[in-house]
Amino acid sequence: MRPSAIRLLNILVPVKRSVDYAVKIRVNPQQTGIDTNVKHSMNPFDEIAVEEAAILRQKHKDAVKSIKAITIGPPKSVDTLRTALAMGADSAIHVEIPESAASPEPLAVAKTLRAVIERQNAAAASDADKIDLVILGKQAIDDDLGVTGQMLAGLLGWSQATFASKVDLDVAKNEVFVVREIDGGGDEIRCKLPMVITTDLRLNVPRYATLPNIMKAKKKPVEKLSPSDLGIDYTPQLETLKVSEPPSRVGGGKVANVDELLAKLKEAGIQAA
Amino acid sequence: MLRTSSKICRSAFTRSYATTPSPHALVFLEHRAGIIDSGSLSALTAAEQLGGKVSALVVGSSEHVQGVVDQAKKFKGVTSVLHSSSPQYAEPLPEVLSPLLEKLLSGADSSFTHVVSATSSSAKSLLPRVSARLDAPTISDVTSLEHDAGSGSTTFTRPIYAGNAISTVRAPSSIPIKFFTVRGTAFAAAAASDASEAEVKAVDPVEVADPPTVHVKTTIAKSDRPDLGVASRVVSGGRALKNAETFEKTLYPLADALGAAVGASRAAVDAGYADNSLQVGQTGKVVAPELYMALGISGAIQHLAGMKDSKLIVAVNKDPDAPIFQVADVGLVADLFDVVPELTEKLKK
Q: Which residues of B touch A260 (CB under 8 A)?
């Protein structure tokens, strides 16, 4: 008997447009949020997620049937999707919300992703067209919540591998071996597809999109959806009362040499153990 | 759509004073081979601040659970200890633990209003999964909280944008169970008391047939030094340490002289000078020791996010314009390869 046909993977990579990691943010005077009139780029953990999808394709060739990027955000978020397309995604979905709308909460994002996955999987003619792997960043560097991937895995009842620093896909066995970063060390797990992976910084080094790829990305398809197409309500569950500046620290000045440094330590009551 | 309508009904009900349930927190108490994690002790303190009952949940393999239960019931403020043992619970796999928590929280006799844990790697993996299944958000890395018993709402503060802004959010009574993880350095550890009146109750495990995830192995980086997350002194090194050997040779004697834990910047970890688990920052550990020594660390936003609540920050850097000097209480512009050995020598005297 011939072995069963090799599984084809369809990877979904959610990405978020966030304030660039190098920007020193400023709280707005109304204390409702931060000044967003600054440079934005793709959330760094999401770049790692896109890169990992591209690496999986390089390693497993035709076994990776499609890589689809998705974002939920204002019209400008399309730039983030183009970046993902230039890095190796084949197509993208933009769930568009108004410029003025607040960033959706992770649970609503997870429900959107579930809706997209269920829509595609219900329409799939065969298993070969179903989304079976979602790779997300472990957290967005703006809200720092780090919960969306776990929520999505919970909603779908799928296996989850958070804080992944190594991903080994075994297409024939339908399994993924993942090394995770945990407090104090590392954790190795074996997961069955379909599954959700969230990326740690050490998973890979994202590539730069080359100019030809950026040009090609402009021709790749971006499907536009509205929250109502998916039946998702973005009304926040939580009420943001205030965003404020953290208490600022003032540098205490410099000392000239080690003896003065030691004197300062002594003053603070710190001595050798 | 369904959710919106049920929310409206609920708020109509909870408006009446008498129907607001008094707070009852379920604390996911973590332990490694029977030793309670220090972060969980901070979670107990945060739970107590809600002003109601506090139940601790202990799960694990049968060999460790009993010992943890005996410790847990002695903590101040703990009103009951729930425990569940199963060979499946030996490793905290979210796919396996989630059904147990869902059962506990959605049972008809459940009175839980809050689910609390440390912001640890295992709780960060588990809590959002459970909360999504119960249609509730998870509020991560909370630094302070206040519960309003009258309205049944809880207000939390938490850092956003790598600690460069503090967000104050209210979880209204329309969220019947509020999930949150707490930043260990923002809450004191719960203290043990002799008088224990906590009720101890066994909970049947929920066996998961054929779980989609299997644990293979855990590797914990061993060290004789204090644990980075709870150490009162931390000596941290950055890219300037050149390589793993000089990192060890330069930093470890000073750390030992001070009885300090060793930390590292992302640059040092990425370059392989130090283990990943030592990374301090937005994506690594958040520390707030009495003394934080930043050696050869420039002080990028992402690093400052993990240490700027330290009591005394000492920085040694060759570059007088390094951003670390803007937050350091004591700065020394010098080559750390000259300064650190001298400092170590003089400390020992």
A: 332
